[in-house]
Amino acid sequence: MFVTTVDVVAIGHTGGEPYALRSMLAEYGTDVRVLPVGAPSHLAEVLNGTLSRAEHLVFSCHGDQRGMLMDPLAPEIAAQQPFNDVLTAEVVTELGCSPPREVVLSTGCMTGTDALARAFLNGGCSAYIAPQGYPEGAAALAFASAFYYQALACGASRPDAVAGARGLGRDTEMFRLWA
Fold it and tell me: How far apart are CA 45 and CA 172, in angstroms?
């Protein structure tokens, strides 16, 4: 019996992070999939529930102060997309987040903004977790692993699981919980 469902949404070139997360989450008893996103339309279908019905979404991505960064597309493909370049708070608000998710966790730099958190929370997510700075890549993976170990394997509450993962130190301290 699985403890929960998790989709790891791989946006852009993030190395082995999505697959490391998938392996780790499977060890914690989750029903987990990796969903590679090649275009903004794929990400819209994850958010609206067409491609994902999981209780947890983990975005393995790059980001900046605007939001989650998408790979550039050829102009003829970009013209057919619901948005381009960046998944912003405004785009999340417009697209929504269905079905309601228990947790949305982003590993992308600077995706821990109040605006992005509010967009996911107002869209029906119970919790949003993301870094408010530029964590080193291994720190983002370590944070996600420690958070899910605490939450799933140890049964910690979300705030306690976040505190435990932040307690690893250095760049993991950049992650914040909005609920």
Answer: 30
